[in-house]
Amino acid sequence: MRRERVRELLDQVASGSLDVTRALAALSFEPAESLGFATIDHHRALRNGYPEVVYGAGKTPEQICAIASHIAEHGDGVLVTRLPAGAAERLAVALPSIEINDVARTAFLAGADRSPRGLGTVAVVTAGTSDLPVAEEAAVTLGALGDCVSRISDVGVAGIHRVLGKRDELLSASVVIVVAGMDGALPSVIGGLVRAPVIAVPTSVGYGASFGGLAALLTMLNSCAAGVTVVNIDNGFGAAVAASRITHRDA
Amino acid sequence: MRRERVRELLDQVASGSLDVTRALAALSFEPAESLGFATIDHHRALRNGYPEVVYGAGKTPEQICAIASHIAEHGDGVLVTRLPAGAAERLAVALPSIEINDVARTAFLAGADRSPRGLGTVAVVTAGTSDLPVAEEAAVTLGALGDCVSRISDVGVAGIHRVLGKRDELLSASVVIVVAGMDGALPSVIGGLVRAPVIAVPTSVGYGASFGGLAALLTMLNSCAAGVTVVNIDNGFGAAVAASRITHRDA
Amino acid sequence: MRRERVRELLDQVASGSLDVTRALAALSFEPAESLGFATIDHHRALRNGYPEVVYGAGKTPEQICAIASHIAEHGDGVLVTRLPAGAAERLAVALPSIEINDVARTAFLAGADRSPRGLGTVAVVTAGTSDLPVAEEAAVTLGALGDCVSRISDVGVAGIHRVLGKRDELLSASVVIVVAGMDGALPSVIGGLVRAPVIAVPTSVGYGASFGGLAALLTMLNSCAAGVTVVNIDNGFGAAVAASRITHRDA
Amino acid sequence: MRRERVRELLDQVASGSLDVTRALAALSFEPAESLGFATIDHHRALRNGYPEVVYGAGKTPEQICAIASHIAEHGDGVLVTRLPAGAAERLAVALPSIEINDVARTAFLAGADRSPRGLGTVAVVTAGTSDLPVAEEAAVTLGALGDCVSRISDVGVAGIHRVLGKRDELLSASVVIVVAGMDGALPSVIGGLVRAPVIAVPTSVGYGASFGGLAALLTMLNSCAAGVTVVNIDNGFGAAVAASRITHRDA
Amino acid sequence: MRRERVRELLDQVASGSLDVTRALAALSFEPAESLGFATIDHHRALRNGYPEVVYGAGKTPEQICAIASHIAEHGDGVLVTRLPAGAAERLAVALPSIEINDVARTAFLAGADRSPRGLGTVAVVTAGTSDLPVAEEAAVTLGALGDCVSRISDVGVAGIHRVLGKRDELLSASVVIVVAGMDGALPSVIGGLVRAPVIAVPTSVGYGASFGGLAALLTMLNSCAAGVTVVNIDNGFGAAVAASRITHRDA
Amino acid sequence: MRRERVRELLDQVASGSLDVTRALAALSFEPAESLGFATIDHHRALRNGYPEVVYGAGKTPEQICAIASHIAEHGDGVLVTRLPAGAAERLAVALPSIEINDVARTAFLAGADRSPRGLGTVAVVTAGTSDLPVAEEAAVTLGALGDCVSRISDVGVAGIHRVLGKRDELLSASVVIVVAGMDGALPSVIGGLVRAPVIAVPTSVGYGASFGGLAALLTMLNSCAAGVTVVNIDNGFGAAVAASRITHRDA
Amino acid sequence: MRRERVRELLDQVASGSLDVTRALAALSFEPAESLGFATIDHHRALRNGYPEVVYGAGKTPEQICAIASHIAEHGDGVLVTRLPAGAAERLAVALPSIEINDVARTAFLAGADRSPRGLGTVAVVTAGTSDLPVAEEAAVTLGALGDCVSRISDVGVAGIHRVLGKRDELLSASVVIVVAGMDGALPSVIGGLVRAPVIAVPTSVGYGASFGGLAALLTMLNSCAAGVTVVNIDNGFGAAVAASRITHRDA
Amino acid sequence: MRRERVRELLDQVASGSLDVTRALAALSFEPAESLGFATIDHHRALRNGYPEVVYGAGKTPEQICAIASHIAEHGDGVLVTRLPAGAAERLAVALPSIEINDVARTAFLAGADRSPRGLGTVAVVTAGTSDLPVAEEAAVTLGALGDCVSRISDVGVAGIHRVLGKRDELLSASVVIVVAGMDGALPSVIGGLVRAPVIAVPTSVGYGASFGGLAALLTMLNSCAAGVTVVNIDNGFGAAVAASRITHRDA
């Protein structure tokens, strides 16, 4: 309840236009909806032209198709992540203009209003080709949120010349998302090369003592490059939203 | 090696002013120092007026004092984090103008050049009073890096009205650093209240199944608010540098 | 063996209508009851009208159907949880009046005697729609145990207004079961809103660093709201029995 | 701020004895209560006669003494848990009527208003004598919250006759708190003996593969007795508050 | 190399019948096979009438059938554990007198010589019916090793009267193998009831925080009943061999 | 309640010497103490001449001295394990005939009745000298329980000749207790050398990835020698009791 | 790009047969080699005759076949590891001279240039037959890298005579790779037998508390034999490359 | 016992100057050497001029001093690692020529015979200055084993130019030991720069999610540079012995 509304209530009580009991009830039961601020639900992007986001894992192709169609009918955009098997085909039939990305396992349909454009370019960097699905999920999400994306692929630190060769591209990015599995060492190197915000995404790429991405996650949390931040394993979507929070800071 | 330098070498070879053997050697042994870009070392901030950062843990008061004095003599600023017992007293004697923060366990001496000012204000939020040392480390670091800080304390989610009462302050921040131990739930709530970048710092506050901050860390990595990023347990310094990378984006 | 049956046996012995040897055999055949106190076996509810509970995981549809039919023949109620694939169809044929719940993966057939009614209403709250199967297992179990259920769904903390909007419903509940995966933060917020007992159920919803529900489990064990208790990951059944122990306190 | 106080304020505004600005300030000064619902902060008990709770760990004896004295001056009760070394002596001097419990490491001073009495008796059961400090923290907390306590000690399952010999006492309890370290097996046995709510508290008693109480915690979460709920390792305070939520259900 | 053999060598050197160089070589290269003691290979039982043991996991039905047939041709007995799907049918055709146990997933063919008989009876106890496959693996192995087996099933501690009702049977056993998943609490109770050796076998029965049997394993390692020993999760075979080492002590 | 007692009760009911109500009460409330069987409490040995066992960890020297003196006054034996600092001196004064073992950190005073003698000899083997304290705790306990002990020290597998050189001694043991930290590999080798029961005791000796004995514990649970059983980390006492259960099988 | 190719380019520029722009493009097209030092990419072997390495996991048979054919067309060798189902057949058709190893799940096609020969022989030792696939991956990789391999199989420590019987073969090896699952104890024994470098490879062979190879990994890291080094679980390829780095030291 | 000593004994027996019984006793007194192969005990280096190694952790200064003096009296060399507090001073008095290294926490006294010289130079590289104690332990051990050492310090990957600037030094090393804590990323970069064997040593440097070096350990085991091997956390000694096994390959 905003301060003004409380003052208004008190004024009404003072003027006798509101009795104490009803004022008490109003103060006690101010519902959430009157709070009047934007909320960002899980896996759902920001208001004003941003698409609705549907997390596809655990949903049937039928459910996803129904949800996406329902949103599209209202002229809103929709982004589906973690498309389960069979969903792409069904969506392509139902919504012919939807853009399917097989690597990212996403489907995106722009709404009537487009997302506000983010400042600058977000670089999405991968250590190895196996990290591409997570990186593409980030890239597609960024596109849906109105960000420009620059992809830099397969520049893992075991061939350090590869990432050094991309220095210019890295230095020109507003935000750098670094996607890496196995040893997860790439964000430490890039964090030392650039001054822009670096968001590290560990992936579950690897075997044995990678423990499903835990090794890369711990590496990144302990990065010797100060100011690297980390999101959940395989969470390309989350990294993109985090980047978009930065590039849309003034939007 | 930059493309221009390679072209130059090739031109010299083409013109005969450089023989093949020496050109080959030059291509093979291009040293690092010619790379010419800024690097951010661990626990050391950015160039141009930024202070040197000394990680105090594991160093003796004597060592810290010697290092800090050495830096100060050159007119540079210095920030010491994780001050060990006894270091504060010794530093205060050696460098009377150094600012000691007992809660943050930091010492800061500004340099002749001040850090460039960051855009906006960084809110540093704590769930409980036990989280204050980590939050103060972040706040002191932000100050040293040229950022304005807004402190919001003791607004843990078990009394949800507390954080809601700080909504305006949160909404006006450029970046929000959320420091929380125990259940680590606060970043999820704040991530849903604001659109600015949210950096979550788990703390080792708690006992038993908090496992030294692991519980809060996992909570934050799994935040249901999209786009929350995470740093290491108790890493107030890192969160501050990450925020500063955002607020100094165009610096 | 119920106390009445033991008394009956003893009466028969006293009256000479039953000889000692046969009485001894009858008592021995049911050694549990001869100890004279109530026992609650694993995944099996309380005596006197409560249904038998069959844990379906790891059993074949044939086995489940045979067990359920056997129980039903004696006029007793039966609740099957964690129905394996194919079991629902087979049960529906064999016991036409059995109630199948596809989301909860349960089957329930009320017995001739109904469970004693619990005091008040148990609120079953979920953070996200993916938590519904676990919540429904709790809700169906509560119904089978004689409790009234109030469902509050999809009120995760990233949109804090959602749970605040349900405050009245929460405040009127006798017990609140809170089901949440990912960051598991919801019980901390609800534990601060209500004074009734709060039972938190972590779910395996999530990926990466959720580690199969471990993240949510640890969050809940470290809840900053005092007096929140926790059951095993995905254990909707156990939460319901715990709630029923409270609502049937005087039964 | 209690509902009565808000009504009082409103009455004053209605009668003109308080102007709107000062009423607004009063309401704003206590934003929590203006939301109109009870809040339970971490380690702080319920309203209306309940004591304030101070978590002593990490605080100096001086700080604890200052906080407790401050509360006592207002006539409120105060419960300090996890007293650090030296705090007991200092508190005893400052507040002569405070009750120190060396085993529980608690200090309790009743307020002018006593906590409302809980229904029935809460049994606090320990598996071994090493579990007593955690059990006593629970018992002292229960007393401070207005609950009657029945202590049953050293009835670990390796001597199963011990717990069976306490069956009557267990059966007469409203709630049973079971405190056990090492194998943590006792709640499973008691959960099968009684129909009342059972709250299990794992302790860090043990060594080696007890991993600081993790073994007991996992045992309890996997209890084969349905409806046992669990709190954090060594969290006697939390178990007591959970029990009190049950016994004060209608308060 | 045995002391007598060394003395013999030295005698030969002293008498000149062996030169120094060859004596040195003999001392240096005493091969393993001359060691002359029994070895117990992994998943393979003791010599002298004991069957060969084949660990079926990871082998094809064809491989298992070929190995078993090869052993049988020499008149030796063979025990196959962890039979993969399809192996039972194939073995039954190839070796009609082989005994298949579907629950234990074992196949056993006695050899021409039978295993020496163990002393007394080994009780194999299960907490729940889901633990039966592991218990049966133990029971079949014991039979193959010449031990008498007494099965006690479904006596988990949540219904403590069940295990107490089997006290006589337990007290008469030479060794007690206790098989339990979930909370793994049964060995602690039985370890307090009997003075015979107790071998605890954790099973992977359970879900969520049972972590594939880890919870039960830790419980058993921390048993409050002194002198309980533990084998690997689901290792019914190993428990049986351990019991057989005890009952064949003098064999 | 034993079958004979039930029959007796029924006979009394049949003969009219006991009325139904009292018979019902007797059946319902058969107390534990009437069970009449031996119990083995935690860290406390068997009845009949066995000493009482006091677990010293967490007790003050004063407490230990008081307990031990109390037991000694009744002519009973007492074994104190994990003696805290200062307890040995105090015990030596109070009970001059008590045997202090500084390595094992134990104190033992034989009772008027001696423990019955166990069959054969128990070999206590260590991999390295750092494992001696745990081994000595086992050896002292065995002595107190009436077992003969053979010590074999410092025969870790990195010098495989060392354990091979002790083969005869190992083969003559009734039970072999193998104490090893670091890689915990010794029980696998010894389990292959002998046919007697092998009890493996992991120790917390090591650093880094030994994780306080976890590495050795896992090694032993996965021993490739069949029939090796394991106790908790550093639990020399438990291994000794387990061995004593074997050697006193017929006692 | 090999050093010879760079020299060739430079020669062409010097002689005027290649202009600077095209030379620059050629160098730029392969930025890695332009830095002039050898790089070892992940799962890719050394320069000069070494085969390209393709990590097959997660690739389709079609993709693998296309990549391998592409490499083969240039006359280069190719080694594919972790062949997915169906890839072997397809490769055999496309590249008839490729060598498929079903146990190792590898395919190898030698290039026109053979790898330089390594010094001495690398022994590849397994503890059990289940470890063979990992050992064969190492052996095939060694062959592809130009090393001689000596295989020693099924010499686990539970039958210690087996490894002792292979002492001569072990002592003659330049490097010893030891592959073991379950308890992972073999490297400790072999590390004590030989003075050559010992590389330990834990495997995921086992169940229960082997935790997918974690137990063997920890054992090896804690080896009581000094100077044993370790690679990732199941990483036969990595062990082979490590060995080859030693045997090609002067190459 | 060295081969020469055995030959000497045999010669004496052959010549009659030693009788068989005494020769047998001599051989039995040193059973290890009679097996005729070299053994490397834990934390003890190779024969023939190599020093004895004493692991100082857990030993008193008195014990260490006695052991070292005893060894020195025989003219043998001795290396003490992990010197406890106070041991250095005492050793310096007792053995004035012993070399104390305060950073490495080692003491080394060369023997009459020096260790055979290893081939080439071993580079010991650290990521940060906090890793120096572990690196120095490696360097001192290498010196004691006869290896030349090249130290490269503080070249962590966050300032990638630092390690690139040391490329020549790295390329000229026979073996590279890389010591790194926190993110442990340095071995991946170096493994891609050099073709020599790379031995990675994780350190416990770091806090929070470094979990005592676990993060760095996992990073290194998952290195994207093929052929990097790993030793235990903080195990500088082990890395040195592993390197020495390589450089003394032909010794």
Indicate the percent of residues in helices of chain A: 25-40%
Radius of gyration of chain A: 22 Å
Q: Which oligomerization state do the chains in this entry correspond to?
A: homooctamer
Could you give the distance between the termini of chain A? 25 Å
Low-pLDDT windows of residues of chain A: 28-48
Strand content of chain A: 15-25%
Query: What's the total helix number of chain A?
Result: 10
Order of strands side by side in the largest beta sheet of chain A? 6-5-7-8-9
Which H/E pattern describes the elements of chain A?
HHEHEHEEEHEHHEHEHEH
* Structural class by secondary-structure content of chain A: alpha/beta
What can you tell me about this protein's structure?
The structure is a homooctamer of 251-residue chains. Chain A is of the alpha/beta class and 251 residues long. Helices cover 37% and strands 16% of the residues of chain A. Chain A contains 10 helices and 9 strands. The first copy, chain A, has helices spanning 3-15, 20-28, 61-73, 87-94, 132-144, 160-164, 167-171, 186-193, 214-221, 236-247, and strands at residues 52-55, 78-81, 99-101, 106-109, 121-126, 148-152, 175-180, 198-202, 228-230. Chain A has a 5-stranded parallel sheet with strand order 6-5-7-8-9, with helices on both faces. A 4-stranded mixed sheet of chain A has the order 1-2-4-3, sandwiched between helices. The longest helix of chain A is centred in the first third of the chain and has 13 residues, at 3-15. The radius of gyration of chain A is 22 Å and the shape is globular. Residues 28-48 of chain A have low confidence and may be disordered. The B-C interface holds B 127-128, 156-160, 164, 182-185, 188-189, 191-193, 206, 208-211, 214-216, 218-226 and C 127-128, 156-160, 164, 182-185, 188-189, 191-193, 206, 208-211, 214-216, 218-226.
